[in-house]
Amino acid sequence: MKKIEILENQFSDKNFKMNLLHESENFKIINFNFKKGQILPVHSHDIDGELSLLVLEGEGKFLGADNLESPAKTGDLFISLISEPHGMKAETDMRILITIAPPL
Amino acid sequence: MKKIEILENQFSDKNFKMNLLHESENFKIINFNFKKGQILPVHSHDIDGELSLLVLEGEGKFLGADNLESPAKTGDLFISLISEPHGMKAETDMRILITIAPPL
After folding, report:
1. Is residue A93 part of a domain?
2. B59 part of a folded domain
3. B18 lies in some domain
4. Which residues of chain B are within 8 Å of residue A72 when distances are taken between CB atoms?
5. In this complex, do B101 and A27 lie within 8 Å of one another by their Cβ atoms?
6. From the candidates B79, B84, B88, B95, which should be mutated to test the interface with A, based on the most A CB atoms within 10 A?
7. What is the DSSP secondary-structure string of B29-58?
8. Considering only CB atoms, which chain B residues are within 8 Å of A80?
9. Measured between alpha carbons, how far is B89 from B83 in angstroms, rounded to an integer?
10. Looking at the DSSP assignment, which residues form a beta bridge with residue A18?
């Protein structure tokens, strides 16, 4: 068993900040923190696998193909194939948790 | 892309409540809600794979082998092999999110 405390104050003024929390043969868990206005542009990877995205705190938009913008707020969970276009736009300071399985 | 709203008021007085949020070939995501005092007893499964446990809200103890009790509070993340003994004891009303990969 491993306990990981997700720090709440890990932001950067330059760009969203990425903290790798765990990586194994089963999954990869990453914390992304966005200051208000920061964006993870829509992207995709041409590989198998899936990701979950949980909003730990804050509000913004989950970005998808064809300019899709889906409202995202604290406690919302999104599931996407890694091969589907996905991204995030923060409308307040925002902390999210991504789980990728199997890991990239 | 699928959006899942994790409801905050899904408790039961009888026992902890389990809500399956997502299941695929890559992972299984389950929300467990405990009223104060409810317990998921220590257990394990003799199979490969790993689970992550995120405390969405509340406080309690993560239970492990040899009577281990590790303090668990909102925002804490625990990682365990599925084959390692694991459990949870709620000391306040508590909502947690479990991700199992690969799925059972």
Report:
1. yes
2. yes
3. no
4. 3
5. yes
6. B79
7. EEEEEE-TT-EEEEE--SSS-EEEEEEEE-
8. 1-2
9. 19
10. A32
Handedness of CA B68, B81, B47, B30 (dihedral sign): positive
Q: What is the pLDDT along chain A (104 residues), one digit of tens a residue?
A: 999 999 998 999 999 999 999 999 999 999 999 999 999 999 999 999 999 999 999 999 999 999 999 999 999 999 999 999 999 999 999 999 999 999 97
Domain assignment present for A43:
yes
Tokens representing A71 are 């409202």
Residue to test with chain B: of A19, A24, A67, A77, most B Cβ within 10 A? A77
Number of domains in chain B: 1
Token code pair at residue B19: 């809500």
Distance separating alpha carbons of residues B98 and B100, to the nearest angstrom: 7
Interface TM-score (ipTM) > 0.90: yes
CATH number at residue B38: 2.60.120.10
| Six token digits for residue A73 | 């707020």
CB spacing of B2 vs A78 below 8 angstroms: yes
- The minimal CB distance from B24 to the residues A2, A5, A50 is found for A50
Chain segment B51-99, per-residue pLDDT in tens: 999 999 999 999 999 999 999 999 999 999 999 999 999 999 999 999 9
Q: Which positions in chain A touch B59 (Cβ < 8 Å)?
A: none
Q: Which domain, by its residues, includes B65?
A: 27-101
Global pTM reads: 0.95
